[in-house]
Amino acid sequence: MGWFRRRRDETYNEQVLREAGLADAGTNPAQPAFGAYIGAGARPAEWDVYTTCEAPEVAGDSVEFAALPEGDLIVAQQQGDADLSPFADAVEQHLKPPYRAIGRREEGARWAVAARQIDVRRMERDGEEFEDVEGDTVVRGTRLDADLWEIQEDRL
Question: Which of 2, 98, 134, 141 lies at a 20 to 30 A Cα distance from 67?
Answer without folding.
Answer: 134
